[in-house]
Amino acid sequence: MSAEPLLRTRVKFCGFTREDDVARAVALGVDALGFVMWPKSSRSVSVEQLAPLASSVPAFVSRVGLFVDPSVEAVEQCLPHLDLLQFHGDESPEFCAAFGRPWIKALRMRETINLSEEAERYGQAQALLLDAYRPGTPGGTGEAFDWSRIPATLAKPVILAGGLTPENVAQAVHQVMPYAVDVSGGIEASRGCKDARKMALFMRQVALADVR
């Protein structure tokens, strides 16, 4: 009788602004790279900056564009450089599905949220990204939320975000057992500039947590 295969938690690093950081993350084996296309973010890049960053990403690493209540035109001009769309605002399911790309919906964990209902509403999403809630801030807060609020079973894969660091990600993986983890500030030297040591340690901690 063969043993059950080990689970592997996927890893997305987000908020890239420099090609050297992209290359380092790829070398470490990250599954996806996120590029912030929301102009109000200190980690945002323009379409002109996105093009060379995205073109440096090799096959089998997903290029993800992060949007917050964008116009149709804002998304469409980024499509040649992206494999996956990530929506962090109040976008409707119809809007998210309108671009012919796989997409994920970020949900901020406000007290009144019903994840089962949201999973049904965004039924065409590839996954739900769960992030901390801070009024007026659509993401990137660097804050964690109470992971025990996540149901043990949900109709969609869970991407866990919000305040993850090399120091707490192993605990997060053990407790939540998410499909993937998403980190930005927890692997930075400064806003938009990644720390090579933190990236490597984060990947190592996820890998160690997966041996269960």
UniProtKB/TrEMBL annotation:
UniProt EC number: 5.3.1.24
Single Gene Ontology BP annotation: L-tryptophan biosynthetic process
Protein name: N-(5'-phosphoribosyl)anthranilate isomerase
Limits of the N-(5'phosphoribosyl) anthranilate isomerase (PRAI) domain: 12-204
Record's catalysed reaction(s): N-(5-phospho-beta-D-ribosyl)anthranilate = 1-(2-carboxyphenylamino)-1-deoxy-D-ribulose 5-phosphate
EC top class, as a word: isomerase
UniProt xrefs under SUPFAM superfamilies: Ribulose-phoshate binding barrel
Single GO molecular function: phosphoribosylanthranilate isomerase activity
Family matches, as NCBIfam families: PRK01222.1-4, PRK01222.1-6
Species name: Vreelandella arcis
Involved pathway(s): Amino-acid biosynthesis; L-tryptophan biosynthesis; L-tryptophan from chorismate: step 3/5
Coiled coil regions, renumbered to chain: none
Family: Belongs to the TrpF family.
Superkingdom of origin organism: Bacteria
Keywords from the named record: Amino-acid biosynthesis, Aromatic amino acid biosynthesis, Isomerase, Tryptophan biosynthesis
